[in-house]
Amino acid sequence: MATGTADIVVGISTRNCADTIRGVIETVDAGLTKFFPGQEGLIVVSDGFSTDGTRDIASGTETHAEKIVLTEEGEPGKGSAIRTIFKTAQAQSARAVGLVDGDLTSIRPDWIERLVSPIVDGKDLVVPYYLRYRYDGVITNQIAYPLTNVLFGFGVRQPIGGEYGLSSRLIERLLQHPLFPAKFGIDIFITLVSGAEGMNLVEAVLGVKEHESTKQYADPEELLVPMFYQVVGTLFQLIDHYRSYIEGVDGIEKVERLGEIPPVQPHKLSVDKKGIYRQFHAKYDEFVRGKAAFLDELREDLEEVYSLDLSEFSFPLDLWVKSVYLAIDAYSGDHDLKVLDALRVLWQGRFLSLVSETEEMSDDEAEAYIQGQLTTFQALWPMLF
Question: Structural domains in the chain?
Answer without folding.
Answer: 8-258 (3.90.550.10), 273-384 (no CATH)
